[in-house]
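Run V8-like Glu-specific endopeptidase through structure prediction, thanks.
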Amino acid sequence: MRSTRTSAAPRRGRRTVLAATGLVAALALTATACDGSADSASDKPDATTSQAADGGGKVQIPAELAGKLKEHGIDADRWKDGGWKDWDKDKWLSDAKDFVNPVIEGLWKPDRMQSAKEADKTVTTKDASAGQGVSDPDPAPVRAQAEKTPYHRNAAPVGKVFFDSPEGPAVCSGTVVRDVNHPGKSNLVWTAGHCVHAGGSGGWYRNITFVPAYNDYGKSEAELTNANPTEIAPYGNWWADWASTSNQWIQGGSETGGEGAAYDYAVLHVKPERGSKSLEETVGAALDVDFSAPSAAEARKMGAWGYPAAPPYNGLKMFKCVDVPGRFSLSPTLPTMHRIGCTMTGGSSGGGWFRVRNGKSVLVSNTSIGPADNTWLAGPQLGRDAETLYQNMSKTYGGR
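Sure, done. The structure for V8-like Glu-specific endopeptidase is below.
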């Protein structure tokens, strides 16, 4: 399988449950539902409008971002006018302190979103055998099931992460997560490290944007031709004004996951292109993150949600898999990862994994890597290192 390298206030109404049921238990994500009277497109933000423009329509790059670009010999005006397309190694910012992602008005239009491709993270037989003796037997494939529509009622916290790479527009999946230091007002999105940074061979990707509940009604490519923008991006586009991933991924991440695979997670702090409410308030839901790194026995079942984009999928619809997790390792010297059977392909990377804890669904991992035959997915255990990254993100950028 391959995995990729990424308003209106919440309205009162009945609560609906997104559930993938097994024979014994159900794994559920809950989202605040909209009542029938609040479902019109006029109640949702215009996904094509940016607050980054002045009265004359010219995009403004904040002074601090322009200053960071200048430090690297990059002209801010040229950057927004297309200079970001220069992927020369001297222009490809790589260190954690170098992340810059100024809003470029109108860049992520619906047709450009549809053109975004998955960027594979495929594990070979040789890679998988490296952890022999640590990994559990390969799980049986679990066929991905389509999520119910509309997504804003059934899986509002789940969405797509769009970004630009040297190969062109690319796509991952992501999840709105709670900000423990700013309850009820989170602007944090959980995804994979390889959805924001190329790892040891490159730097930060560019124009990173999150679209929750993308393609809200699961329309086909033909139907999307004349779709209302709010059906494609019901809660608008949310640009990452900061991203954090692990040092292990930045230094050791590779095309097959590499030594960074067990640390392949990232947190985005986002801001709306339009409006002032937080992401959590706008979407109406966010998931807690579980950093206890539960064992397979403790977790019992895990579910992965995402937007697979590689064949036989096309990235337009949300899918899910639920399975009993096992252990997977690329090396005895690395932490073991979670693994479940799942047929989702590239594009699902970064999508959240959930388990039930104390009666509530919590995020416990994200899709990272998988085999070329698309039979299973593996994701990192979220332990102390992941919690430290999350807390630093929350304390430094949360609440903005």
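Residues 384-397 form the longest helix (14 residues).
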